[in-house]
Automatic annotation (TrEMBL):
Pfam families: Oxidored_FMN (PF00724). CDD domains: OYE_YqiM_FMN (cd02932). Its cofactor is FMN. Keywords: Flavoprotein, FMN, NADP, Oxidoreductase. It comes from Hymenobacter crusticola. This is Oxidoreductase. Residues 4-341 form the NADH:flavin oxidoreductase/NADH oxidase N-terminal domain. SUPFAM superfamilies: FMN-linked oxidoreductases (SSF51395). One of its GO terms (molecular function) is FMN binding.
């Protein structure tokens, strides 16, 4: 059967009305990890605009899991209560909503981007950051190496936040395992220099992510989809760098542990060669991971036109198209894309006079 950008997709109990996904985008508009009116409008307007799945910004499982003091969280009940009306509003528009859970590890404790995004030491309200190894990820401070006991509590924190995500009514969970944050700090040998069960071999470096997936699967309903965002490659020429072959290997394990979708991003420790950052530059990662493993994939990165998005789906390069910056420019991208592609997609009832069904004006 021919598929296009507006074909539905079923993932466990999640019935998506189309293939358009709002990619997670940190807003730095939270106090005490609480989502608020900004998040309601930011996420809600993309649901009104017709996105099939809306994913929240990276939401921390613990206060020290944040990148800045302004990140959202899911480490307490007040945060569950704050997310609930946002979840309900998005769902009332016919969209689904996933929370992206994360821990920034050694990349945490930074000032607000508008204040320079520099490392914030404990004396200035920040915290001591911890990572796979005692490394500096921002060239401003050195993280401490996590102990085995601390690793075990991290896994429990992820499971507890996943339980809270279910309580808040989220339809799915995405684990942020890319962009140089905690899980990536473990699976990439560029950062992980441990010599215990969590370092050294490939199996040891991916252990934390797999243990976390297991812990989350054990506390969420079987029918709830679990997504993982990976950095498919490290953008580094170093011999130890994470490669696409490593990603394929990891994805086969993630599938065995109950992960349904892999969203294929890249990088986090070093910037890609600027000349290679061109439209669709990360799509081949989603395509190759899908071809090698059969997992459902999301393509992301410099996808900005309806034609590009539709071709990714109709040619089978990926199952989902994730948009970030283009959605900041155009919250109604799906409605505009449907018109461009001559596909009939209903606008929200109160907006019909601006988006009349085809053939009427
Ligand atoms: C303002 C902003 C905030 C972002 N925050 C997150 C985040 O919280 N989690 C994440 O996985 N990616 C984050 N990203 C990356 C995007 O999800 C996306 O992968 C990237 O911007 C490339 O897609 P685009 O070319 O459509 O913008 C962020 C990007 C932007 C522009």
């Amino acid at each position: 059967m021919d598929v296009n950008l507006f074909s539905p997709l079923q993932i466990r109990s999640l019935a998506l009305k189309n293939r358009l996904v709002m990619s997670p985008m940190q807003q730095y508009r939270s106090t005490d990890g609480l989502a608020g009116p900004w998040h309601l409008v930011h996420l809600g307007s993309r649901a009104v605009g017709g996105m099939g799945l809306v994913i929240t910004e990276a939401t921390a499982v613990a206060p020290e899991g944040r990148n800045t003091l302004f990140d959202t969280g899911l480490w307490n009940e007040a945060q569950v209560a704050a997310w609930k009306p946002i979840v309900e509003f998005v769902q009332a528009q016919g969209a689904k909503i996933a929370v992206q859970l994360w821990h920034a590890g050694g990349k945490g404790s930074h000032a607000h981007p508008a204040a320079g995004f520099h490392y914030l030491p404990p004396a200035d309200g920040g915290w001591v950051t911890k990572s796979a190894s005692a490394v500096s990820l921002d060239r401003q401070h050195t993280a401490q190496q996590l102990t085995a006991a601390e690793i075990a509590s991290l896994v429990s924190e992820f499971a507890a936040s996943a339980r809270r995500a279910v309580q808040a009514g989220f339809d799915a969970i995405e684990l942020h395992a890319g962009h140089g944050y905690l899980f990536h700090q473990f699976y990439s040998a560029l950062v992980n220099q441990r010599q215990d069960d969590y370092g050294g071999s490939f199996e040891n470096r991916v252990r934390l992510l797999l243990e976390t997936v297991d812990a989350i699967r054990a506390v969420i309903p079987t029918e709830m989809p679990l997504l993982v965002r990976l950095s498919s490659v490290d953008f580094s020429e170093e011999e130890d760098a994470w490669s696409l072959a490593d990603s394929v290997h990891l994805v086969t394990l993630l599938q065995q542990h109950g992960v349904d979708v892999v969203t294929a991003s890249a990088g986090g420790f070093s910037a890609p060669d600027k000349t290679k950052v061109v439209p669709l530059y990360q799509v081949p990662y989603a395509e190759q991971i899908k071809a090698a493993t059969g997992v459902l994939t999301g393509a992301v990165g410099l996808i900005t036109t309806p034609e590009q998005a539709n071709t990714i789906i109709s040619s089978g390069q990926a199952d989902l198209v994730m948009l970030a910056r283009e959605l900041l420019r155009d919250p109604y991208f799906p409605l505009h894309a449907a018109a461009t592609l001559h596909l009939s997609v209903p606008a929200p009832e109160p907006y019909l006079r601006a988006f009349p069904p085809a053939g009427r004006s």
